[in-house]
Amino acid sequence: MKLESYLSGTWQSGQGDGRTFVNPVTGEELGRVDASGLDAAAAMDYARDVGGPALRALGFAERAALLKAVAGVLAENRDRYGEIARLNSGNTAIDAAIDIDGAIATLKVYARLGASLGDARTIIEPGREQLAREPVFFARHVWNSRPGVSLHINAFNFPAWGLWEKAAVALLAGVPSLSKPATATAWLAVEMMRDVAAAQVVPEGALNLLCGDGAALTTALQPMDSLAFTGSAETAAALRAHPAVLERAPRLSIEADSINATILGPDVSPDSPLFDLAVREVVKALTVKAGQLCTNIRRILVPAAIVGAFQDAVVARLSTVTVGDPAAEGVRMGPLVNEAQREAACAGLAGLSTETRTLCGGGAPKEVAGADPQQGSFLAPTLLHCADPMAARLIHETEVFGPCATVMACQPAEAPALAARGGGSLAVSLFSNDASYAAETLQVLAPWHGRLLIVDEQVGRNHTGHAIVMPQCVHGGPGRAGGGEELGGLRGLRLHLQRSALQASEPLLTRIGDAAAVATL
Ligand code: NAP
Question: Is residue 478 part of a domain?
Answer without folding.
Answer: no
